[in-house]
Design a protein that fits this description.
The chain is α/β, with parallel strands linked by helices. It contains 10 helices and 10 strands. Strands 6-7-8-3-9-10 form a 6-stranded mixed sheet, with helices on both faces. It has a 4-stranded antiparallel sheet with strand order 2-1-4-5, covered by helices on one side. The radius of gyration is 17 Å and the shape is globular. It starts with 6 loop residues before the first strand and ends with a helix. The structure holds adenosine-5'-triphosphate. The site of adenosine-5'-triphosphate has 11 residues, from strand 2 and helix 1. Adenosine-5'-triphosphate binds next to strand 2 and helix 1. This is ABC transporter ATP-binding protein. It holds the Pfam family ABC_tran. Belongs to the ABC transporter superfamily. GO terms for molecular function: ATP binding.
Length: 242
């Protein structure tokens, strides 16, 4: 089944100097699959996403995307191949307008003007509030709108896999529901694969197909979201949470 996986991470180990952030982590995401990556603070979740998008060096192991080995590929090549990463904290540019932020997401396709225009129309259709605010400074957006902008900007790169790092951080419960609503829509309507790092485990498992739980950099549990939601060992892993 390896050939059918969109993302295939094998025995990934990443260290920051003397600190091993993740060790022998293996996970897969199939096309159109919604996978949750869970675990306490510092468990290594963000590091796995950074290694997949090429922002940190892989110490050992292998990362394949769409069947091609990308373990040593530059981040720009991974993005061009269809990998998009929405990092924690959104990283939008407050001095630019909403539309300028979105256009930056299409940087790799910038010469394809009509394609960029279609991309904008498409994300405005998905996020009508961004359309209303297209000419406004991104600095005036609410937390939920800023998160939507970060996701919309990632979509402008025409990804096949969307990786999100705690997109619900700091959002009130109604906005959290909205985030899961559009992720479900992206997967259903566009067949996007989703790899989601999330602290809100219940809601993540309610929407995901499968989940992986990291504990101190190692894979502690994995299985269907349904199984994980009912697994007693799960809470034991979580007691480590500060
Ligand atoms: P969080 O939810 O807090 O972001 P996480 O599960 O995403 O946690 P990581 O951010 O991947 O965990 O961190 C894993 C380990 O690596 C932690 O011990 C962390 O302190 C360490 N670490 C992360 N980034 C760096 C860095 N740039 N330099 C040194 N150590 C780091």
């Amino acid at each position: 089944h390896a050939a059918t996986n969109l993302l295939d991470v094998r025995a990934l180990t990443v260290a920051y100097g003397a600190v091993t952030a993740c060790s022998h982590v293996s996970l897969t995401v199939a096309p159109g699959e919604f996978v949750a990556l869970l675990g306490a603070n510092g468990a290594g979740k963000s590091t796995v996403l950074r290694a997949v998008s090429g922002l940190v060096r892989t110490g050992a192991g292998r990362v394949a995307f769409g069947g091609a080995d990308i373990t040593r590929a530059a981040p720009s090549r991974r993005s061009a191949a269809g990998l998009a990463h929405v990092p924690e904290g959104r990283r939008i540019f407050p001095d630019l307008t909403v539309e300028e932020n979105l256009t930056l997401g299409a940087f790799a396709h910038r010469r394809d003007r009509s394609g960029v225009r279609r991309g904008l129309a498409d994300v405005y259709d998905l996020f009508p509030r961004l359309a209303e605010r297209r000419a406004q400074s991104a600095a005036v957006l609410s937390g939920g709108e800023a998160q939507a902008l970060a996701v919309a900007r990632a979509l402008m790169s025409r990804p096949r896999l969307l990786m999100l790092d705690e997109p619900t951080l700091g959002l009130d419960p109604r906005r959290v529901v909205e985030v899961f609503g559009y992720l479900a829509r992206l997967r259903r309507e566009r067949g996007l694969g989703i790899l989601l790092v999330e602290q809100q485990t219940r809601v993540a498992l309610a929407h995901a197909d499968r989940g992986y739980v990291l504990n101190r950099g190692r894979l502690a549990l994995h299985g269907s979201a349904h199984e994980l939601a009912r697994d007693d060992r799960w809470s034991a892993v979580y007691l480590g949470r500060g």
